[in-house]
Design brief:
Layout lengths: L2 E6 L5 E11 L2 E6 L5 H17 L12 H15 L4 H15 L9 H13 L4 H20 L24 H9 L3 H13 L3 H5 L7 E2 L4 E4 L10 E4 L2 H21 L26
Length: 283
């Protein structure tokens, strides 16, 4: 049976902050709650008693860890590991921050995720976009668990997404979009249109080694396509000229930076220079 108490100092005064006493495997544990609110302290005690009774490890300060801390850790992880494009991840986290900033991580649950989804839907976001946001949040919570800052990551349920689109650009629509793009993105859009490839998963993921200008070919590796089969296609003269110019611009950037840039469509300037462009749709 646990208890709440306030510490008495040597001068006889009593502190405002509540402390806990509870038992884990029969051994007493004393811990500062960090709160002066008795109801909140009781909630923390009840949670700790539940963990102790189940034999789970009671992690230090787990009830005081907030969203902002684990969001910073996730960004540091992405920056160090290269697991995800930072520009795209920052865009996701910006939406999450507006809703979850200041929230205690241990208290997050299904209702919070539902309210986030409803908020984003009211802002006009599609379910697919919201699912990508929630995917980043899920990775954030799993990393917090791996770092000993969460007892177990909560379940985040995905929303039903719209059926795949069956609408394709007509030539005049394609031309109108292409004219408004910078040269480097024209390469991506032209390749997607001429080859019938998916921009995000098949064009923007291309590396320089997949283009063979001498043979006039470009290939997708097994696992890079939707059916996991490899693919080799022959380039049109227009695409060959565009890709030759594009590859030369990437090589110039490599010489300036003194670093290898393996991507066919990287950022050539700005904060993410040298990193691959993952998406250029603005929401």
């Amino acid at each position: 049976m646990g208890a709440l108490y306030r510490r008495t100092f040597t001068n006889g005064t009593i502190g405002d902050t509540w402390w806990l006493k509870y038992y884990v495997a029969g051994r007493p544990v004393r811990e500062r709650t960090g709160t002066t609110d008795e109801a909140e302290a009781k909630r923390i005690l009840k949670t700790k008693e539940g963990w102790g009774a189940s034999g789970e490890p009671v992690l230090p300060r787990v009830d005081r860890i907030k969203y902002d801390e684990i969001a910073a850790e996730l960004r540091g992880h992405y920056e160090a590991s290269g697991e995800r494009n930072l520009e795209e991840a920052d865009d996701r986290v910006a939406h999450l921050k507006r809703f979850f900033a200041g929230s205690k991580v241990a208290s997050l649950g299904p209702n919070d995720f539902t309210q986030y989804a409803l908020t984003r839907q009211k802002q006009g976001a599609a379910n697919g976009t919201i699912n990508r946001d929630l995917g980043v949040l899920g990775r954030m919570l799993r990393l917090a668990y791996e770092n000993g800052k969460l007892h177990r990551p909560p379940i985040i349920r995905q929303l039903k997404e719209a059926d795949p689109r069956s609408v394709f650009f007509e030539r005049d629509q394609y031309g109108a979009v292409r004219r408004r793009l910078p040269d480097d993105l024209k390469v991506a859009v032209t390749s997607a249109y001429k080859l019938g490839w998916r921009i995000k998963s098949e064009v923007l993921t291309l590396t320089l080694t997949q283009v063979d200008l001498a043979a006039g070919t470009i290939r997708l590796e097994p696992g890079q396509t939707k059916n996991d089969d490899g693919r080799l296609v022959y380039l049109t003269p227009e695409l060959t000229d565009m890709l030759r110019e594009k590859i030369e611009r990437v090589k110039i950037l490599m010489r300036k930076r003194g670093a290898v840039i393996p991507y066919l469509v990287p950022h050539l300037s700005g904060r993410y220079v040298g990193h691959p462009i993952r998406n250029f749709v603005r929401k």
